[in-house]
UniProtKB/TrEMBL annotation:
This is Archaeal flagella assembly protein J. The chain crosses the membrane at residues 27-49, 61-83, 251-270, 282-308. The lineage of its organism: Archaea, Methanobacteriati, Methanobacteriota, Stenosarchaea group, Halobacteria. Keywords: Membrane, Transmembrane, Transmembrane helix. The keyword Transport does not apply. It holds the Pfam family DUF7972. The keyword Cytoplasm does not apply. It comes from the Archaea. InterPro entries: DUF7972.
Length: 332
């Protein structure tokens, strides 16, 4: 009973961590973090520490404190420029390089179309992935039907493998129904399709049993379809990373300008004699300066919330192909 409770608590913690790292809206997460920082700064003044007004009088103003934010924000803006250069460098190149990229993309699309028996696949990423998953599900049904010609032991294993393959493909296919590229939903759903494990199971099935040629061919066809999913996920993951880094760059630039303005106002106009009085037993100076600190750290918090999801996705999708890394199976 204890172990069950521990497993349940561990599951809740993993789910919470997964929600914070991946699922939660980045702007909402940034707002929550900034609110916690603000609350911590305000409540610290109630712990009997040296009053902020007294520290301000001793230092002769807020310049000693908020000047550091000016340098940090400007440095952060430089990081934005670096990020933009990194993203744009992937899109720049000679016409020959661009043509090679186009040819590779068209060849891959035609290969997928031929494998799943569709004349033309849809260009929208989530629909393209759904069509590939539908092809995998159809192949699983074909394998299950053909597998009836194998011996009893092999037939049971083939049936179990085909059922698992079809169920997982159908589940991810359904999850993609309302997903749209540009949001995290497409990548999130694709992360749930463990194609590497299914490739390994399919190859192991062939190795463990002497199978009729037609069954062997259908397993090969299923494995071939699964091998298309890896490059597909990696390609859309790369596009998503570029999309997200561009959004991050814009967000940091938008946050940096008001943050610099607020820091300048505190340096120029706030001292120990400003914002006299108190509310709820806390000096007005503490309320206002704490808000200023929150504005100053907001670009950094936004940067962290966006980057943490990018690196978490990268960690969970490190392995491509038949290899299964422990990190790829974790929720962090």
């Amino acid at each position: 009973m204890v172990s069950t409770a521990e497993d349940r608590n561990g599951g809740r913690l993993r789910a919470l961590r997964e929600y914070l790292l991946l699922r939660m809206n980045r702007w909402l997460l940034s707002a929550v973090i900034l609110l916690l920082v603000y609350a911590a700064l305000v409540l610290t003044s109630r712990l009997g520490v040296t009053p902020l007004r007294q520290i301000n009088e001793a230092q002769g103003g807020m310049g000693y404190f908020f000047t550091a934010f000016i340098g940090a924000i400007i440095t952060g803006t430089s990081i934005v420029v670096t990020i933009n250069q990194l993203v744009l460098s992937q899109e720049l190149g000679a016409v020959g390089d661009q043509r090679d990229r186009m040819d590779a993309a068209m060849t891959f699309q035609r290969d997928v179309e031929e494998a799943i028996g569709i004349a033309i696949t849809e260009p929208e990423p989530s629909v393209f992935v759904r069509e590939l998953l539908a092809g995998i599900s159809d192949q699983a049904e074909t394998l299950q039907a053909v597998g009836s010609s194998a011996d009893a032991d092999a037939r049971d294993d083939i049936d179990a493998y085909a059922t698992t393959l079809r169920d997982v493909a159908d589940q991810v296919h359904e999850m993609l129904d309302s997903a749209q590229f540009g949001t995290f939903d497409v990548i999130w759903v694709m992360m749930h399709f463990e194609y590497s494990r299914l490739i390994h199971q399919g190859r192991s099935l062939r190795d463990e049993h002497e199978l009729p040629d037609d069954v062997d061919a259908e397993i090969d066809a299923a494995v071939d379809l699964l091998t298309f999913f890896g490059p597909t996920r990696e390609h859309f993951k790369t596009l998503y990373f570029q999309w997200e880094l561009i959004n991050l760059s814009r967000a940091l630039l938008y946050a940096s300008i008001p943050a610099l303005a607020v820091m300048a106002m505190f340096i120029m106009y706030v001292d120990a004699g400003t914002f006299v009085g108190s509310t709820l037993g806390i000096s007005h100076l503490v309320w206002v300066v704490s808000a200023g600190v929150v504005v100053g750290v907001s670009p950094f918090v936004i940067f962290i919330t966006f980057i943490v999801r990018i690196v978490t996705v990268a960690k969970r999708t490190l392995a491509m192909g038949p290899f299964i890394l422990r990190e790829s199976e974790q929720t962090n």
